[in-house]
Write a structure and sequence with these properties.
Keywords: ATP-binding, Nucleotide-binding. This is MoxR-like ATPase. The protein is α/β, with parallel strands linked by helices and 334 residues long. The chain has two domains: 167 residues, Rossmann fold; 102 residues, Helicase, Ruva Protein, domain 3 (Orthogonal Bundle). The chain contains 13 helices and eleven strands. A hairpin with a 2-residue loop joins strand 6 and strand 7. Helix 1 crosses helix 2. The longest helix has 32 residues. The two termini are 21 Å apart. 35% of the residues are buried.
Length: 334
């Protein structure tokens, strides 16, 4: 393809991006009416929505994690369900089960709460491994098997999970196979002082806004198709791959001091999700092409839960975020 044709294609794509981006700006504005001072979290939820990837939110209680997810669902014409994960939860409570119908003398399927567009898995690390594994097929295959029947989940389908990092009593650590299925793991921090003042006034005066649906599921599906067309240059692709491979073979990238800190590196899902998330971030910013800043801004969220720390790293209190920072500093952006 000639440079002239490529330039023309990007120009045409830019027009489509601006048209679709307008609706997502409306969606963001509507969410921000209820969620104050958490722009990072809102952006990551939108990236997950556009990139068709699940999002894990980690933060102390009271940071509006659950409210943000519920608000996103309310601002979209879609089905929303919430599952409060507890130690006594059963897989059937999540995906559904077979129920015997006495009148018809036959079994019928009762669908679980995962049959929705947006599924909030609240405090996901409070459920045992058996329940967590029930989500594996749901999250990866976008389908549920009950008895001998396999049923497709509605589109779009998004699992948005929360977990509390400080209260570890009665919790079950999420296995690597489970966390790897989340496109993003976002660490949510406290709001700024002025933002918290606004929150305090809004709640104390009961001036809580009613969220209106501002975007349809069809518009979301159309925007998702557009995400796949966002231009990703070969140099950006190499930048993404170098970043992911540096978590596996740090010594090859002049980061030999990281080798003893990393037990295992990021999986191929990291490369896939980093490319998709970078495209989604470019779309949110109103661009039809990905730049290095898109990759850098989303790198920690894609990589932090895919890097296994060694005992040495834990002893030295080195975090995944620090490792990603060192990789970003070492690998030259195109």
């Amino acid at each position: 393809m000639s440079e002239l044709n490529q330039s023309e294609d990007i120009k045409n794509l830019m027009e489509k991006v601006k048209e679709q981006n307008y609706f997502f700006n409306l969606l963001k504005q509507e969410i921000n009416r209820a969620i104050i001072g958490q722009e990072y979290m809102v952006d990551r939820l939108l990236i997950g929505l556009l990139g068709n990837g699940h999002v894990l939110l980690e933060g102390v209680p009271g940071l509006a994690k659950t409210l943000a997810i519920k608000t996103l669902a309310e601002a979209v014409h879609g089905q929303f369900s919430r599952i409060q994960f507890t130690p006594d939860l059963l897989p059937a409570d999540v995906v559904g089960t077979m129920i015997y119908n006495v009148k018809e003398n036959d079994f019928s399927i009762k669908k679980g709460p995962v049959f929705a567009n947006f599924v909030l898995a609240d405090e996901i690390n409070r459920a045992p491994a058996k329940v967590q594994s029930a989500l594996l097929e749901v999250m990866q295959e976008k389908q549920v098997t009950i008895g001998d029947e396999t049923m497709q989940l509605p589109k779009p389908f998004l699992v948005l999970a929360t977990q509390n990092p400080i209260d570890q009593e009665g919790t079950y650590l999420l296995p690597e196979a489970q966390t790897d299925r989340f496109m993003l793991k976002c660490k949510i921090d406290y709001p700024e002082l002025e933002d918290e003042r606004k929150i305090m006034r809004m709640i104390s005066t009961q001036d809580i806004p009613t969220i209106r649906p501002v975007i349809s599921l069809d518009q979301i599906v159309e925007a998702k198709k557009l995400i796949n067309q966002i231009y990703l240059d070969e140099k950006i692709e190499k930048y993404i791959l170098d970043m992911v491979f540096a978590t596996r073979y740090p010594e090859k990238y002049g980061l030999a001091d990281l080798k003893n800190l990393i037990n295992f590196g990021a999986s191929p899902r990291a490369s896939i999700n980093l490319a998709i998330a970078s495209r989604a971030n470019a779309f949110i910013k109103g661009r039809a092409f990905v730049i290095p800043e898109d990759v850098k801004s989303i790198a920690k969220d894609v990589l932090r839960h895919r890097i296994g720390l060694s005992f040495e790293a834990e002893a030295e209190e080195v975090s995944q975020d620090e490792i990603v920072d060192r990789i970003l500093a070492k690998i030259q952006a195109p």
